[in-house]
Amino acid sequence: MSTRAGIVVTGTEVLTGRVADRNGPWVADRLFELGVELAHITICGDRASDIEAQLRFLAAEGVDLIVTTGGLGPTADDMTVEIVARFCGRELVLDAELEARIAAVLKSLMARYTGVDFDAVRAANRKQAMVPVGAQVLDPVGTAPGVVVPGKPTVLVLPGPPWELQAMWPAAMASDAVQQAIVGRTIYHQDTVRMFGLAESGLAETLREAERVVPGFADLEITTCLRRGELEMVTRYEPRSAGAYRQLMAVVRDRHGALVFSEDGSLVDDLVARLLAGRRIATAESCTAGLLAARLTDIAGSSAYVAGGVVAYANEAKVDLLGVDAALIDAHGAVSQEVAKAMADGALRRFDADTAVAITGIAGPGGGTADKPVGTVWFCVKLAEGTTVIRSLRLPGQRSDIRDRSTTVAMHLLRRTLLGEFGALEA
Amino acid sequence: MSTRAGIVVTGTEVLTGRVADRNGPWVADRLFELGVELAHITICGDRASDIEAQLRFLAAEGVDLIVTTGGLGPTADDMTVEIVARFCGRELVLDAELEARIAAVLKSLMARYTGVDFDAVRAANRKQAMVPVGAQVLDPVGTAPGVVVPGKPTVLVLPGPPWELQAMWPAAMASDAVQQAIVGRTIYHQDTVRMFGLAESGLAETLREAERVVPGFADLEITTCLRRGELEMVTRYEPRSAGAYRQLMAVVRDRHGALVFSEDGSLVDDLVARLLAGRRIATAESCTAGLLAARLTDIAGSSAYVAGGVVAYANEAKVDLLGVDAALIDAHGAVSQEVAKAMADGALRRFDADTAVAITGIAGPGGGTADKPVGTVWFCVKLAEGTTVIRSLRLPGQRSDIRDRSTTVAMHLLRRTLLGEFGALEA
């Protein structure tokens, strides 16, 4: 791509890890869709000298566009506009009309809070109406306006709260200054392939073979990564390399066909959602304690097929709410094939569902034994039409990894079951 | 602080936002605990020139220690060690003994996967045994070893998978090279205060007052941020400024006492966990669909007081599993004070619990109406001893924000109820 960009994420709370940055990745996606190559994301605290150093670094790297996020609030540690103005050699001036608009927003906002004197708040927000001379103002979504400062590089200053930044993005992209900055962009293709059950090393070997047999392989920019337990291969290429990509995929399918579950960027969540259309699913969760139900309902419209679920954390809950036979738990333990199956049966029955998923395992750090170490998880997917699929795995990582990974395993087991990949007599 | 550090996060999957970086924030926390000031986190893709540019930038900024994460895998896009070696002007050599150790790890690992030829995998991993001359090797946790390259700056190269990086950290910190790099560090105090129900602007005004009345205020490095719906104030200061901090807190308590819920860094999750000791809690969730139960059980040992919960996404589930009167839903709608209360009643009863939390709301994007717009959420906390607390809010943001924010509101309502802040006749 001939147009490059950099993102400067400001905020001591982000730098120190107290708040996870959601803006860098989101802006990165938007830039890619535009055909703008993102070269760097830099994160620094609320320190003028560090923010300026990052702006200088990105300018020295020759980027055409710098997007900054955060530091537009009313507190003293919010200084991004001031620093960007200085970096761009422009004065700050008060935009009276903008100040009035911010005040209006605040009046309604203050209703939500207690213990705040409105005039004080308005004074605190006056600095948010100071804009660099010649910059284009982007209307505030919350109380903080954004600004676009034209130049080489052009600097786009956006607020920190993700929903404010995202709502402001279209106006920012529509601005003349941004349009001029990205005029040289070229659209690349990006194709994403997702695999489950394959080691990254196995794919690496396949790619080395492809390098030998696929003409034009060198023109494909391939990145692979493990993502929530799945293996993801993303390939970027110019339109002229479409043929090379097709041949690469032929090699990948030939080697790993059965493990490739998505070639169009769809997540397993999307695929499962489609397969659940017209069905009625219920969950029965122990160690994941609601994460699977929450994941299924992340998708808007999931109420059409999600009936609900039971978080049966205590054994009594498995018995009382899912009808698991207490004797089964005594005989085999709560983390067992038998209990997983009984939990799925109970979910089907109690929710009058036609599809059920049960998860019971040991997330740790405590509770592990020699024969059932931390990470041992049993899964059961059951369909009213008669299929029952049961699996167990020993998952690596910490408590949160094991819980999250369990939901991924369950989604894949659910997908394959709904696709009819298992016989009715699996269990 | 007299010792500064920078973090270089590598990985196109991170730069492009396909994978959220968990390492930067984690390493940032560890560095702070050590008294090392983190100046910059930079993120770039798997491109040699960009990685090198970031290393040069951090070196030019005069940091004493650079920590890199990622790019230690077997695939061609994993090139961090090679680039760091070049940056530090050191040759790469094969560590045969290390190669043997990696092979051993792989043999056991391969058991988990299908469709992989072990020798191919081992070949793919040979490059992971190439280390810079004079560098200290950090034993692999997964298959990738880390390295510490002494110098100014010293470069610590760590793997990308968070659990591998975290397990390797102690050995890295114990290495002579790292110890020498951070010898000049000075310990700062850091105190965190958390508030709920206060606007950032209100706190900003309070801080301006403190600036006038607190001697030595200028020596306090204060950052404030909104975090999952809470307002967080973090203050860093040298030991000699402890008095100034005490006076600052007197001002904050005087202005916002009732809204300050934590002064020792505890999260509301921790406070609720302590208050639940000896109790038995159950949840009844509609729009959050398990997120609250999952949040309560994020904490190891929560099985001592979490019985479980019902995700009652469909109305029939509210009736069948929680015993909500269908007529109540018809009369007031599923998102109503009456249904929230009935859900909490059902959770108490069905789980034989003494504490119950119910959440029912409209997460959107669809389902909103004029009188119940998207973001409308009803909460009910009920204690067996007789207290019932009911609240409703209209939460801002998108579906995921509304769902997450709802769990935060529920945690605070639960905390205040368990503290007895509400009368028995609240509802």
Q: What is the CATH topology classification name of the largest domain in chain A?
A: Molybdenum Cofactor Biosythetic Enzyme, Chain A
Contiguous runs where pLDDT drops below 50 for at least 5 residues of chain A: none
Q: Can you count the helices of chain A? A: 16
CATH C-level class of the largest domain in chain A is Alpha Beta
Instruction: Kindly report the spatial arrangement of strands forming the biggest sheet of chain A.
Output: 2-1-3-8-7-6
Shape of chain A: globular
Mean pLDDT of chain A: 92
What fraction strand of chain A?
15-25%
| CATH second-level architecture of the largest domain in chain A | 3-Layer(aba) Sandwich
- In total, the number of domains of chain A comes to 3
What would you note in describing this structure?
Two copies of one chain form a homodimer. The first copy, chain A, is of the alpha/beta class and 427 residues long. Chain A has three domains: 4-181, MoaB/Mog-like domain (Molybdenum Cofactor Biosythetic Enzyme, Chain A), CATH 3.40.980.10; 189-265, Alpha-Beta Plaits (2-Layer Sandwich), CATH 3.30.70; 269-426, Alpha-Beta Complex (Maf protein). Helix content of chain A is 40%, strand content 23%. Chain A is built from 16 helices and 17 strands. The first copy, chain A, has helices at 12-15, 23-34, 48-60, 80-87, 96-110, 118-126, 162-174, 176-181, 200-213, 242-256, 268-275, 291-296, 315-322, 326-332, 337-350, 399-418, and strands at residues 4-10, 37-44, 65-69, 92-94, 130-132, 136-138, 146-149, 154-158, 189-195, 221-227, 230-237, 260-262, 281-285, 306-312, 355-361, 376-383, 388-394. In chain A, the strands form four sheets. In chain A, strands 2-1-3-8-7-6 form a six-stranded mixed sheet, with helices on both faces. In chain A, strands 14-13-15-16-17 form a five-stranded mixed sheet, with helices on both faces. In chain A, β10 and β11 (230-237) form a beta hairpin. In chain A, α3 packs across α4 (80-87) and α9 packs across α10. Chain A is globular, with a radius of gyration of 26 Å. The two termini of chain A are 53 Å apart. Chains A, B: Residues 6-180 form the MoaB/Mog domain. Chains A, B: This is CinA-like protein. Chains A, B: It comes from Candidatus Mycolicibacterium alkanivorans.
